[in-house]
Amino acid sequence: MGNYHLLEIEFENNGQKQTITPVLLQDDRDLILVDCGYPGFIPQLEEAANRYGLTLASITKLIVTHHDMDHIGSLAALKRAYPQISIVAPELEAPYIEGKSKSLRLEQAESTLSVLPDEAKSQAEQFIRYLQSIEPIPVDQTVSNDERLPWCDGIDVIHTPGHMPGHISLYLPASKTLIAGDVVVIEHGKLNIANPQFTMDLPEAVRSVQRLLDYEIDQLICYHGGLFHGDVKQALRQLLREYAS
């Protein structure tokens, strides 16, 4: 059975401590990174991989769950440093990653600028410039809903839109593990929708949580929150009840 490793990366952002959890999937042929952090995160990724005796130079593929800056920020730099890495992304997300379409997060930030109070505009403009600085990168392979990828004992692609229209999660049937991306996050030990106030389509995001109940999940890994401890299906149902009320 293939192995997975959680790359917990702690850092400070605007004076606040944060953690993201990219994942490395490993078998005897491939080392696959799922999502890659903010711009400039290659040293942090390398340090996290080294904890497992692995290096970024051994990565063969990088799967992107969606085009938010904390998931693709280091994508172009990684490809430059390690050109053997094949970039794999959802078909619906590829135009944004490649720069053929404007980032939806950038469009969202620009659309709210005019309604912000003057004292908040400077920070918002800084955020817009940051989003504009994310470097586009060609996608080598696109994937779509219900596709099974043949690597690491099989990786099932689940289209989980809402947070972003093309967002995917990954299911590893051999270990009954779900790599959630941002379909759910862990906050104070509980599951929640990722940034509901910035989610592109909140009702769709809730439906995506509902869809996860179709899978037997023993381990749930959230990009924000890491490994969930507890009964996954019970926690998913509780989250759905909260959004149904």
UniProtKB/TrEMBL annotation:
Pfam families: Lactamase_B
SMART domains: Lactamase_B
Catalytic activity: 3',5'-cyclic CMP + H2O = CMP + H(+); 3',5'-cyclic UMP + H2O = UMP + H(+)
Alphabetized UniProt keyword annotations: Hydrolase
A GO MF term: hydrolase activity
The UniProt record lists the keyword Acyltransferase: no
Metallo-beta-lactamase domain mapped to chain residues: 19-224
Keyword Lipid biosynthesis (UniProt): no
SUPFAM superfamilies hit by this protein: Metallo-hydrolase/oxidoreductase
Classification via InterPro entries: Metallo-B-lactamas (IPR001279), NDM-1-like (IPR050855), RibonucZ/Hydroxyglut_hydro (IPR036866)
Superkingdom, natural source: Bacteria
Function: Counteracts the endogenous Pycsar antiviral defense system. Phosphodiesterase that enables metal-dependent hydrolysis of host cyclic nucleotide Pycsar defense signals such as cCMP and cUMP.
Name this polypeptide is given: Glyoxylase-like metal-dependent hydrolase (Beta-lactamase superfamily II)
Lineage per the UniProt record: Bacteria, Bacillati, Bacillota, Bacilli, Bacillales
